[in-house]
Amino acid sequence: MAPFIPLEESFPDIREGVRSLCAQFSGEYWREKDQKRAYPAEFVVALTAAGYLAALIPEKYGGSGLPISAAVAILEEIHRSGCNGAACHAQMYIMGTVLRHGSEEQKQRYLPGIASGELRLQAFGVTEPNTGSDTTQLKTMAVRSDDSYVVNGQKIWTSRAEYSDLLLLLARTTPLDEVKSRRHGLSVFLVEMNKVEGLEIRPIRTMINHATTELFFSDMHIPIDSLIGQEGEGFSYILDGMNAERILIGSESIGDSRFFIDRATAYAKEREIFGRPIGQNQGVQFPIARSHASMEAAHLMVCKAAALFDAGIPCGPEANMAKLLAGDAAWEAADMCMQTFGGFGFAEEYDIERKFRESRLYQIAPISTNMILGYIGQHVLGLPRSY
Ligand SMILES: Cc1cc2nc3c(=O)[nH]c(=O)nc-3n(C[C@H](O)[C@H](O)[C@H](O)COP(=O)(O)OP(=O)(O)OC[C@H]3O[C@@H](n4cnc5c(N)ncnc54)[C@H](O)[C@@H]3O)c2cc1C
User: Fold this and answer.
1) Last residue of a domain, which of 61, 92, 116?
2) Which pLDDT tens digit goes with each residue over 97-115?
3) 291 plus 370 within the same structural domain
């Protein structure tokens, strides 16, 4: 059976609910947070209270057990409205590692608290300063002692660590030169950050308001039962979660594209120069139209990937292409919108420059465009491995 492709207005009740929640968080709210690089805690609390961040958690653990297509609708609407899901989106996809690979005891211990908002699982520690995209080379070690693992090393770009109770950490448990393949010997841990010693969190100020940090581990002891699944199999668990991550980030980029297209269209109709609306000029109108077409095409790929994912059908190529195409569409729309607004695009009060900066991230994180192209080249087209 062909996968069902949801339309733009799939999950209308959810979309309407998200829109009305987002309407309470105006551009002014986001601009103030952006200027101070402050965490949008009120927005996160409101999303949690409305149950949106627990959309993918099964009902038996206190969530709503919705398909990923519903989470796509939630994140797309957040971004279309000018808000930013990056303050809390990680919870939606990193929770999946606990759900798929955690023990029943771990699921009972953490998932209901995550669903209710009592526990925040927002931090995902993978990237390291010296190994970057080459994840299998990461250097942070977790060495097993009698009653704990002792963690030493460093992470970078661990976003939201200061606003999270839990950290999903990828660390090496067997040295690289002792494993048969570089994909083995890495393990995933769920760390209760407020219960450990030997963890230092240093914020990094960036061009966007992203609450990102560096983490330093010095003899950080974590209980043995922090381990998720089997020791040494963590890399494959992280890979299992990548499709959801790609699809959800893709949906945020679709939302960003719609934000830029909505704003540019409205402005091009209203702004009159040389005695006519600027949108009457093909030089202004056509980039908006092209952007719309790019966004719609990327949106189809996001919907296809989500439909395959929900049907339990492998969707690596589609999830990667969805993230690639949606990220590109958002950046094209951002540039188009900036051009349509002319000088006013630079004024903070229009929110174009803020969204312009925010939408740029998705060419680089959580995976950079080149890595996706390498994946398509190798795994879809059978070209020689390039990295
Ligand atoms: C704001 C922000 C938030 C982030 N949040 C998180 C987070 O919460 N958790 C986390 O673990 N990480 C996070 N990251 C890290 C992010 O996932 C990485 O920045 C990203 O994966 C790229 O790694 P890198 O920056 O080390 O780049 P590098 O790996 O150093 O790459 C630099 C450039 O070279 C290119 N390149 C490298 N090797 C090749 C190759 N073989 N072929 C072609 N091109 C290549 C890359 O595509 C990239 O453009 C975040 C990053 C940012 C900026």
Assistant:
1) 116
2) 999 999 999 999 999 999 9
3) yes
The answer to whether the beta carbons of residues 186 and 234 sit under 8 Å apart is yes
In short, whether 209's Cβ falls inside 6 Å of ligand 1 is no
Q: Is 258 part of a structural domain of the chain? A: yes
Q: How far is the CA of 377 from the centre of ligand 1 (A)?
A: 19
Residue 323 included in any domain: yes
Is any ligand 1 atom within 6 A of the Cβ of residue 387? yes
Q: What span, in angstroms and rounded, lies between the C-alpha atoms of 103 and 220?
A: 23
At CA 334, angle to CA 338 and CA 239, rounded to 5?
Answer: 160
88 is a domain residue: yes
- How far apart CA 92 and CA 53 sit, in angstroms, is 6
Q: CA 333, CA 257: separation in Å to the nearest integer?
A: 5
Let me know whether 371 and 329 are in one domain: yes
Residue nearest to atom 49 of ligand 1 (CA): 368
Domain boundary among 96, 116, 136: 116
The total of structural domains in the chain comes to 3
Range of the domain at 63: 12-116
pTM above 0.90? yes
Whether cis (ω within 30° of 0) applies to the bond prior to 366 is: yes
Q: Are residues 243 and 345 in the same domain?
A: yes
Average confidence score pLDDT of the chain: 96
Q: What share of the chain is helix, strand, coil (3-state, %, to 5)?
A: 55, 15, 30
pLDDT for 387 equals: 84
The H or E element containing residue 22 is helix 12-22
Q: Are residues 251 and 318 in the same domain?
A: yes
CA distance 250 to 270: 30
For residues 269 and 304, membership in a common domain is answered with yes
Three-state secondary structure call for residue 166: strand
Closest-CA residue to 323 (of 386, 371, 265):
371
- Asked if residue 370 and residue 244 are part of one domain, the reply reads yes
CA of 3 to the centre of ligand 1 (A): 32
Q: State residue 25's pLDDT score.
A: 98
β partners of residue 152: 141
Contact 321, 375 (CB under 8 A): no
Structure tokens at 270: 């209203």
Instruction: Using the structure block, give the residue that is written with the tokens 């704990």.
Output: 148
Residue 128 and residue 59 in one domain: no
CB 259 within 8 A of CB 79: yes
